[in-house]
Automatic annotation (TrEMBL):
This is Amidophosphoribosyltransferase. Its EC number is 2.4.2.14. It comes from the Bacteria. Binds 1 Mg(2+) ion per subunit. In the C-terminal section; belongs to the purine/pyrimidine phosphoribosyltransferase family. Pathway: Purine metabolism; IMP biosynthesis via de novo pathway; N(1)-(5-phospho-D-ribosyl)glycinamide from 5-phospho-alpha-D-ribose 1-diphosphate: step 1/2. InterPro entries: GATase_2_dom, Ntn_hydrolases_N, PRTase-like, PRTase_dom, PurF, PurF_N. It comes from Aliidiomarina haloalkalitolerans. Its cofactor is Mg(2+). The keyword Electron transport does not apply. GO terms for molecular function: amidophosphoribosyltransferase activity; magnesium ion binding. GO terms for biological process: 'de novo' IMP biosynthetic process; purine nucleobase biosynthetic process. Catalyzes the formation of phosphoribosylamine from phosphoribosylpyrophosphate (PRPP) and glutamine.
Amino acid sequence: MCGVVGIVGNQPVNQALYDGLTMLQHRGQDAAGIMTIDGQTLRLRKSNGLVRDVFHTRHMRRLSGNIGIGHVRYPTAGSSSSAEAQPFYVNSPFGIAMAHNGNLTNADELQQSLFNQARRHINTSSDSEILLNILAHELLQTNQLSLSAEHMFAAVERVHAQVRGAYAVVAMIIGHGLLAFRDPHGIRPLALGKRETPQGSEYIVASESVAIDGTGFSYVRDVEPGEAIYITEDGQLFSQQCAANPVHNPCIFEYVYFARPDSFLDGVSVYASRINMGRKLGEKIQREYADLDIDVIIPIPETACDIALEISRVLGIPYRQGFVKNRYIGRTFIMPGQTQRRKSVRRKLNAISAEFKDKNVLLVDDSIVRGTTSEQIIEMAREAGAKKVYFASAAPEIRFPNVYGIDMPSANELIGYGREVDEISALIKADGLIYQDLSDLIAAVRDENTSLVKFETSVFNGEYVTGDINQDYLDRLDAARNDNARHGSDQDETNHELHNEGD
Ligand SMILES: O=P(O)(O)OC[C@H]1O[C@H](OP(=O)(O)OP(=O)(O)O)[C@H](O)[C@@H]1O
Ligand SMILES: NC(=O)CC[C@H](N)C(=O)O
Ligand SMILES: [Mg+2]
């Protein structure tokens, strides 16, 4: 899951973009980038690494201008090369920069049609570069020297008509302003904020509301599925629905894991949804596993903490932070490569023996994906002296690949694929394993906003909301992006970089 942010201000936006990206860091730890427009020039700094490592004072000084966009990357297409860090840039028409969160499901066809119809070259293997060129091609088709809001919206309409998959986008067009849009299913989140200054209104568009609050803007609303928002360089805002049949299917995994608890996505407090997940899972344990002799409930930091606390309340069993998290190690699930993920679990978490010794513990996590965390954590609990180790997951069994911007390309790498709960339990060596039911997970989120009718839940039930995914597609995705295939391609860190503001 990547994070995107875009700001149109009436003062330099570099620091606010940087701050916004630090508040979205949990969505992508691989690479970061900022582009600003200063007069007629685009300024760029992007590289692999965390926000704090990518931008030094000298880079920040060069990122001048009152309008800009930023990105933190968690790759779900192409390679991890710094050349695929975002934002991307294309010079025609006008000079356009783009940052994208999501994943296109017809990228190959789009790349082919870009070549056949527009002779456009794509220099990386990133789907985001393709999306940028589709937008650029459609803006060019308007054949105007200067684009109005109507021209922008007409171009986005044509983008929606061709592009499949998930995309929450912020783009900038030199001499014009900032254009943000969200795919017609609203799979990935995108929200709008505003700030009044003596010089007039300033706007921000960001993946999560936390980046709006944290930069001193006020949340206005979420961008609608299929909608485009255009903010001119002088701060005028236009918006329009650009999709023929928009439906709202937000990704439910945002609430389970990706988003920060202090964010609101599509009118749902992520924190409140996680409390609901804990309550429903606690009630299931009470109902169906009343005979489990649990002494203590221990969360697997960090995402599961709020969930476990609520389970403890429902069950009336003490909650203890039995694992200490090393605050200098990031999220393990979004690290590229299984070797790195495996090693990081023990570096990240360490047990406090007193909380485990001679006790029956219930470990709680938000989700079990590859089983990397659960397997090692159960081993650590036993090493720390636990008698019995039960495990509860606030998300149901993850059995299907994700094609919309979560890096789960291969069913074979999912511990839940083709396995029943007792088989998974045996693999992670738990004394008992309890999963949330999908209907309860959906209700946990929906209870916070009943206008949301259907979520993107493919990893749990194999139903892909864009309707264009078949087994052949999944097989090709698996072959291209499973851990072994990727290990090979990520070795090839060829630098096909075209433009960067230096090191
Ligand atoms: O089954 P797995 O493949 O191990 O993936 C699932 C785990 O990964 C995530 O934690 P992560 O360390 O990424 O982040 P967190 O600190 O926010 O919990 C998630 O919260 C689970 O703990
Ligand atoms: N997780 C994401 O949103 C990734 C965006 C884009 N597909 C990339 O790989 O760079
Ligand atoms: Mg975790």
